[in-house]
Design a protein that fits this description.
The protein is of the alpha/beta class. The chain has 15 helices and 13 strands.
Length: 384
Amino acid sequence: MDEALRPALQQRRDQSLYRQRHVLEGPQSPCLSLDGREVLNFCSNDYLGLANHPDIVDALKRGADRYGVGAGASHLINGHSRAHHALEEELADFLGRPRALLFSTGYMANLGVVTALTGRGDRVLEDRLNHASLIDAGLLSRAQMQRYQHADVTSLENRLSQPHDGRRLIVTDAVFSMDGDLAPLPALADIAQRHQAWLMVDDAHGLGVLGENGRGSLEHFQLDPGAVPILMGTLGKAFGSFGAFVAGSEPLIETLIQQARSYIYTTAMPPAVAEATRASLALVHSGNGRREKLIALIDQFRRGAKQLGLALMPSRTPIQPLLIGDTKRAVTLSETLLKQHQIMVSAIRPPTVPEGGARLRITFCANHDETQVNQLLDALDQSR
């Protein structure tokens, strides 16, 4: 087996596609202890800086004192605690939905929804740049999967116009994780209604960040819940915790409880994590200070990048991709930033992005400050 695997691993090294893990010594923050050295962190999804917030840490500790560590079983056996149930109710209330259902990860949530709602004889229509979990979900559903051009409503409508008798499920990221741009949700909702299709939105990178009250991409676009009947969100990004959920109608949630295999056949998240997430949700709900600071930092970075002539992609979210193109050059630039400037920025390469689309994926956190943004800009200027 080893002899069969080694050539492919070496090929990945030769093509600058080999992935390696770093060892983190402490909590998420703008400054990390990484592989034994201090670095400035611009690659985390902890957008609001809540992953090490003292209120959330305290809630986790209290939850562990009350519930212990492991949930012990799946939600449908005896792993569904009062903490889980309360978090589901509070998420549903926050988003103005009748129900919410917790999943252990966003990947599992996406697999569970798409495979529970579609099958042979149905069609799943996905944006070409959807997250890998959504693509895998469409493939595993055994439905006919069609991918439309990125954020192209005409491309989607052309596919929907083809005759079909089964269910049709439109699936899209709200904020695309490698480009940072937003899906045209109002137009997608309109098309779904006109063609009697169902619309599922993965708002992993929008919830907590976008919208006047942090309710995500739907609030940003001022869409009511009826326009997007299936909403998925993750808890390990802006909420600084762990896990995911699906929010929607009573029949939707009950169907997922009965049929979503990635919900039925997995152990529930630790109840203490649910308690921590309740504290995080309360912080997100309590004010806009963190979101306002985050927006100011993004604006500062984009102004500075424009002055330097850096090829930023058109994003107003915390995801600010710097398009490089060549894979080896992107990897070299990422390594230079880390070794010479002690700044960590991930190089994103194929197959995560298309060939010729290698980039630095720069992300911002509300805990960054203006000095650190200027430090990043100076390092980018000196490294190119």
